[in-house]
Predict the structure.
Amino acid sequence: MDCNTARMLVTFFGRQGSELAPEDAAALDAHLAGCPGCAAAVRFERAFDDRVAKAMLAVPVPAGLKAKLLDGVTARRASWYRQKAWSLAGLATAACLLIGGVVAYRISTAPDLNATELITTQGDQIQNPEGYIDDFLSPRGYQFNPERRFELRLFDDVAMGQMQKREVPVLYFKNIQKNAFARVYIVKDSVLNWKTLPRDGSSIPGTFGLQLAVVLDAVRGDVAYVVIYTGESLELFLEPRSQI
């Protein structure tokens, strides 16, 4: 190790060299032992450090300094928390205003509920269920065309529903006289493979008095009507065979 390296190590890692790696500390000690000039310089700097340290320790600490420092830190911390609280309050207010604005916009742009149109629609559902069903299904790419025709006088409503987490059209039927209900799911085999179910007209009994049966489409081979119903048989919801 040369003198320049030794002086640099002493400057950057302290006079005692306590932060040096063991091998570097050993090399520095070996150099100082064999170099009187570097050794004298290090002794001088160590003596200077010692005198400065003693002088610093001899300075009396003002009474109450610790308490004043802690009070200052507490005050700054309280100020920071107040600023943070005001910032969060501002964000909350802005969020409320934004949500309120969105709600107000939606209310202002929402169409008025037309009583006449609503009554007419419900009348069509009762008087012309076939047209009502077609108006709902056609825009969605479906038709209601089962091989065995359902008794549309028992039709209640049509909507999109969930079957095994897939969205499919479902028609609701009520046979009030027999206290029986049916849901007719229109299922494409590309959505759910219904072809694993019995297709011979037989039903599968389930729990809570429910049964399941499959009615095929009269035209399309990829569409079936999966019916989940209550009552003694699916015939409660179908037109008599003599009317087919």
